[in-house]
């Protein structure tokens, strides 16, 4: 605040000292005096004012940047906390993404801009008042014309600020698509497929069209803004011209000295510049207020389907099991039932295989079970405790999940496993134990840095491992959590047949004393389950053990035989190739 007051008083001080410098020099010239002390004193004072002004401004810039960066960290932290705390179905809402995108950058600057504006207005007001008094003492019309020049600028900036915000608001979906296209072409994982399908030029063309579309709208508003700016500058120039005429008349009447003439001209310019600065800041408040409101719209974002009270109970030690009662689910803003009237009871420690064609609701089923999706209808009970009454953290702590699209963290092997339960102490013995169970230890022990080896090459020169090895890492991470319920979505999808056999040979040991659900498209793997659930169009159409379902000759029988035919065909082909090789 003190800085603003001092900076506000600098212009009038500079004008007054400039007047003294010129007048003292004129006296020196007119009287042919050799007394340089007085003009030299005023020159030193003028230099001192300039230096003080620079020091205050640089100090202000440092304080301002420091506050902006600290505020940026705090606000971004709140955004990230919001992102990780909202229900997973929010990520199916485009409106949620649009709001997130609009507040993704420069939050510190955005929140400080109104404060900066107030400081600018305070500084400008002090400058204007001091210069206004000075000009009024010369002639009342000079101060009046400087004041009148500011009002058109205020109206123009207010209108332009609103238009700039609306442009950014309506361009958000296009901007998101542009960012996504850039990400796809820059990302290592997507670059392989883009090359193989020769999609590069197609995506560049798509990106170019979207970019040009957004650019044309931006340039249109920019042209309008420039027209507004020219009009504003024209008005300012007109009033400056009138002020110049008044100054000339005052000189002709010999009521101004040379020093006063120069000082008044500079004072008029400074007054109009300060008035214009105040007008621009006042006009920008509307846009800044709207942009700040975007932040609070995001942090307070809620959906009608997220109005259920938060659970407060602990997760029970399973004794009776898990019960589904008429469970149904459909995605937000959709009428299609993904799950429909699921009724089921699973005893503690049972191994449950979930099979069915793609799109039959298998993955949605486990997301509802793990508390990621809120039920549209029905209840899920763990013993006699309903899922919606249990704390989210309690659910996540007791259910371990390995999804098919698990994350490949570009950190060390040790950290990749430790991420399964960061609340535990980092004990290498326990990490190695689960690594051995999941088949991670065998290939990790061959790395020069062992468990300290970075995976991938995003941050450091690490090891590139296969998809099957990544899946074993994900399996070890889930085992490290040590939850009561174990869920695997396609646990052997990335494994070769030999590795798959090894996993299922270990399966009983891996899931000992755990209630286990595993989704599989390979019917042969379902044989080890205590119960097989056959999904079709969001419903459980069959359930039972392998032998029973084969006897029934229903959906499972058909799925199994289709795959058996593939396996038989593959086997005959392999045998035929071997015979040809032996003959040759």
Range of strand content: 5-15%
Number of strands: 10
Average pLDDT works out at: 78
**Coarse morphology:** elongated
Query: Could you give the order of the helices and strands?
Result: HHHHHHHHHEEEHEEHEHHHHEHEEEHH
Strand order of the largest sheet: 6-7-8-3-9-10
**Considering DSSP H and I runs of 4 or more, what fraction of the residues is helical?**
55-70%
Write up what this structure looks like:
The chain has 584 residues and is an alpha/beta fold. The protein has helices at residues 2-30, 37-85, 94-102, 107-138, 140-148, 150-186, 188-196, 200-252, 258-299, 362-369, 392-398, 413-418, 428-438, 441-444, 467-481, 497-510, 546-552, 555-583, and strands spanning 322-330, 337-346, 351-356, 377-382, 385-386, 399-402, 485-489, 515-519, 531-536, 539-544. The termini are far apart.
